[in-house]
Amino acid sequence: MTSLTIEQKRVDIYPSAKPGSPVIYLNTFSNAVNSVYKNLMALGCPDFCLVAVSNLKWDHDMTPWYMGPISKHDTPCTGGADDYLKLLLDEIMPEAEALLPGAPAWRGLAGYSLAGLFALYALYQTDVFARAASMSGSFWFEGIMEYVCSHEMKRKPDCLYFSLGDKESSTDNPILNVVQQNTQEIETLCHGKGIETTFVLNSGSHYQACNKRTAAGIHWILNR
């Protein structure tokens, strides 16, 4: 594993020994990276490279536009996804892939929570990613349903993975309690466009088994 710092982002690169393996870009927290990778190894994935980006400004880098606080003590989301995606494509990706054993067969994008929202949103902005995995994606985010229903992805992805905890929509917060309905509607919409999709309902809340759920989604898109 090699680590880089690019524009204050930490980039951990786990190369494959096999040239031309696919590469998965994972936006995550730095303390989750090793656990996710160990879970992937335990699942017996085919050869792949993992590029994990952390030290993110979560409510800025992973959100497509401004959204006010969802609760009294929360902070707003400030809509920096387009800028972060440009950094990912123009700087992080070239530097990371220069350290890989050959050009990747394809690129995937994965993330949990707001990074799961970003994983889908990015497909509407760039054709670089062939597959994506959104685990507990924040599809309660205001305006995201209208956006995906009125825009087309830059390319038809090979496959899309969606998962959610079965208790995530069990909340009195009217913003958050639509998350399961919205996730399933997005999955149905994408499937209707001829994309291979799956929706997995895990046991538990948003904060349970995050790294295992992340690995499960990446494992799925690697095995299509």
Could you explain how this protein is built, in words?
By secondary structure, the chain is α/β, with parallel strands linked by helices. It has one domain (2-222): 3-Layer(aba) Sandwich (Rossmann fold), CATH 3.40.50. The protein is 33% helix and 23% strand. It has seven helices and ten strands. The protein has helices spanning 33-43, 58-61, 81-97, 114-121, 144-150, 179-192, 210-222; strands spanning 2-6, 9-14, 23-27, 49-54, 66-67, 77-78, 107-112, 131-135, 159-165, 196-202. The protein has an eight-stranded mixed beta sheet with strand order 1-2-4-3-7-8-9-10, with helices on both faces. Strands 5-6 form a two-stranded antiparallel ribbon. The two termini are 26 Å apart.
